[in-house]
Specification:
about 800 residues, mainly alpha, 39 helices, about 0% strand, elongated, Vacuolar protein sorting-associated protein 35, Vps35_C, Vps35, membrane, protein transport
Amino acid sequence: MEAMRIDDTNSVEQEKFLETAVKTVKAEAFEMKRSLDKSKRMDALKHASIMLAELRTGLLTPKYYYRLYIDVVNELNHLESFLLDELEKEKKEESIAELYEHVQYAGTIIPRMYLMITVGVVYMKLMPQMRAELLNDLVEMSRGVQHPLRGLFLRHYLLQVTKSLLPDAAEGVEPAIPGSGTVRDTIDFIKLNFSEMNKLWVRQQHQGPSKEREKRERERMELRILVGTNLVRLSQLEHLTQEVYEKEVLPSILEQVVSCRDPISQEYLMECVIQVFADEFHLATLNEFLASCKELAQEVHIKNVLIALIDRLSLYVSNAVGSNIREEIQLFEIFSAQAEGLIQSRSDMPIEDIVSLHTALVSLAVKCYGEKLAYANTVFLSLANNLKDKQVEGIDMYSHAGKELIRVLRVPVDEYKDVLRVALLTDYPRAMLPLNYRGRCTASAFILQNLIDNETGLKSTDDIDAVCSLIECLLSDQPDQPEDAHDSEEFADELNLIASMIHLIKAEDRDVQFLLLNGLRKRLGAGGKWRIRKTLPPIIFSIYELALNYQQSDGDENWDMKVRKMFVCAMGTIGALITTGEMTQLPLNLYLEGAIVANRIKFSENAMVVYEFISKALSVLEDEIADSRERLSALALVTNSVLKVDCLASENWEPLVGQIILAGSKMFKKADQVRTLCSAASLYWKGKVAESEGELRNGNKVTEILKKSAKVAAQCMEPLVQQQLFVHLLNQYYYFYEDGCTVISPDVLSELISRTRDAAIQLEPSREADDIDQHLQHTLQHIRNTKDKYPELAEKLQI
């Protein structure tokens, strides 16, 4: 907070200093323009000199000095334009030469140099033959300004205004205008300007008290682009050849960079060289550049330099233009050796820097040498060994090192778009181990998501083993796994990805498909209670789907045995959900689904399988489900499932239905007993057995169960509940009566209607009573609407 107050105070003071200086600049600029309009050239130069004197200030920081500099340069541009027009009209070489000499008598160095440069530019435009001489004169004279800030901006101004005037004629070819210079003159000019600017920039670091070191470093970073512009100008020269760059330009730049011994300057300029010069130049001078990297100061983040160079050349070599270079220059071997040497020589290198270097190498390997998996594998092996040597483990995925490690693991996955290809990198999983549990799971989940997005089919045991080796932490409990890991959203999302992966198992042969599913089932079954709840159900459904594909034997002698084996596998898997997964409702549903699937497949033992699955579901209902609502829902599912099967013989069908009725009779609440018994009655009406040609339509059993339901309903003590149950019974009776159950007589319906009407009158007014009465009225209305079909009933009821 204190630092913020100081910065705010400084900003206010800086604004005041700048405002004062700008007022002077504008006032003198106005007088300069007025003198120019009156053709008083000397007076104009005098006012310009006073205006330029404001650039001598030592009160402004680089940011505010730059704003002042821009205002002054804008006014100098006006002066330059005016002088150019005036002197061009005079067409006298003596006039411009005299003017160039005159401004050299300015009282102080800053105004003198800016005026020399401004007039010198006019001189060069009017007398192109003087360009080479004038450029050399101006760059040498600028040595007179040794103040870092003022000198940097002065030389930047020199470079900017001469941009369009720099000679670029090929060396060895006579220029169109004798004396105008060649590209050699420009190279010498920029090299000298660059060298002097870098010295000024470095000198700035050592001026002022040591306690302001950080402040000076910030200010220097604001000024770095001024120095880098020299290299940009060099790279833009049309006739800068590779030979000249290799023999003269780069050696002089590297000499200046290495000799300055300033970490900020070295790191910035090395990265600048990488970014501005052509890829071909870098390839031709790769060894020289890398050799100079070893001579940089220890404080330089050399990994940034190497990474920038690797990324730049990776992009170049990976495209069509650079494809042939891969064989000519062993880029991977060179950079790999450099990176390893750097890591070994700098024992204090941060973990995130080590990982970042390997990220760049992996990117180079997979993008430029995709066919050589050994290269990428070598990088992951090196990374794993380096982290092991430094005894790094449990890296937090949100730390700098963790983010970099996640990034390097994603590079081959994104590039190959084929997880099976990534699995061929045998040392890839080792690079994942230093992450903590959550980090490993995140990396594995990314692999799974890529597998699903690209719909990579798993067609063999080797494919499944390969994928599982990459996602091991998602398949089973880990030593460093938090106890509450299963409560997180990430855990659930990861299990959903595994479930989706199961549907990518697509073997070409059905027998192989079953072997793959069964093998994965065994692997997933060891995942523990929380995992198998999400991962085993998709296996079961995949087995059911496969079984349905076996509906036709296709002449296979072992067809019956294979289908039976699938259902045995499914039954065992469901059992694991009960015993290990401690689940009830889902296993019951899966048993019933299995019974329905088995009923559709006409193999020799389908009746036995159906019976076994339904009996297992009833066992779950009796032994595992205690909650009344869950039991009611489960019993309804069992009843509906039995209605859908038609392969059971009577001796098997009857015990199952008897168990359903018994379970309904044991329901804790009377109301639930009535509802479940009414549902069970439909089994004797709509149910089918193997011996029957259609529905059973056993009216005697239907009425027997309905009478039992009515007896139970009559035992209810609550008038509202009892009335609700009898209305429900009335609907059930009339449903079977309408469907042709002759055992149900009009007398029974009449008695039920009379009872419900009488009970409705006795109910105390309430919202619930109104709802029940409305239900009763709807039922009676339905009976009235159908009276023409049943005249006997209509007469009996007198409706």
